[in-house]
Every structure is written in C-alpha cells, then in structure tokens.
Amino acid sequence: MLAGRHSIGAGGVGVASPEFVGSRTFTTTSASTFTVPLTSLTGGLASAPRTGDVVVAFLLAGSSASISIPAGWSLLVTVNSAGFYATDLFVIYKTMGATPDTGITIVDGLPFSTRSLSAAVMVYAGASSAAPVFATHSGDNVQVDPPSITPTMPGSIIIAGGGTCHGRGTQTLSSTEFDGFISAGANSTSDTTVGMGRFAWVTGAFNPAAFTFSGASDADAKRTAVSLVLIPA
Length: 233
Hints:
This protein is an all-beta fold. 0% of the residues lie in helices and 49% in strands.
C-alpha cells in the first residue's frame, strides 16, 4: 500500500500535479478497423482533449491481436499473455497538438470474428509529454493485478490498469484504491474486460491490490496490467 497520498491536483511543495481532464471507455467486436472516441469525456475539466493535453489509452484485445496505431501516437508498451484466451494489452499515448484528435483509429491486422476489444482512456492537462515510466504484469485467470511502481517526482500521478480475456461474457472490473476508476467489457467468443484508475502520489511505492472481477473465475482466462507515472510538465 502507498505510504501517503494527496488529493488530485495538489502537487508537492511548489509543484502542480497534472489536472484530470476526463475519461471514457469503448468496446467493439469483430472489427478490422474501429475508432476509439475521445469525445464525451466525463469526470474532469472538459468533454474532449485540448491542445497540450496528454491522452493515455489502454487497448485490450483478445485472440492474439496485431493492431496498428495511427501516426502521431506513441506505443508505450505491449503486454502479452498467451493461452486459450490469449490477451494483448497495448498502452499508447499522445500530447495533443493545435487540432486535438477526436478519436483513435485502430487497424487490426488479424481480424477474427471471435475477437473483442475493450478500451479505457484518461486525459490530463499539465503533464509532461515525455514517455512515462512504467511496470508490467501478466498471468493467468481474471484477477488483473497492476504491478508496484515508485514515482520520484513530486506531483506525480499514477495511472494503473489492464484487463483480462475470458469466457464469462460482459463483465467489469472494480477497485476502491483509485480515483475515478473506469471499466468496460465486450462479449464475443473471446470476451475482454478492461479497467483503469488514477492515484495522486506522495511518497513510497504504490502496490495496488488486484482488481475485483464482476463474474466467476475462469481458469482459462489470461490477464495483463500496466502501472505508469505521469509527471508534471
């Protein structure tokens, strides 16, 4: 558990934390090309990204996906967990330019009729455009378990999330350790469920507990997770 925390937006002495702009989720099935919307954000300062805002997206695909992200976006990390319900987590980010994106158009190079995809997006103002520091985790079953991470800069925000591919239909994840936790699930032959939350860091390592899965356990399921650190600009 974290040694200490502060309210969102209240950085260390003389340091302003990145400000939460908003978040949203998205799901789809059996699509070779799809767009994750960046409009209708909720919970923060605005309903869409503005110039200079940093967008972080967790894209969770089942059945060994091979996706291509649009130009201008950076792939932070891909986490794979192979098995009957193979799971691929793609974490991407971008600092918005003069004309902010209204969506993220994804091309799946291996579209299957049995695949689903679940996505979660968070947007921050006043965050550095540098690649975030991150840690990863993968494993079996549905207990998505973001790894421990230790920021070093005052005012840092931790974003942690991930998901599972399983056979339990439309399910969600939950956690009481994060602010503004969001989750969504897609129902196909390879079902996917994604979850994502934010945490205002003060000191020490943050090692969150595994997310709670709304359905029954699934021994064939696979899980992936990433914890990352947004630092002030």
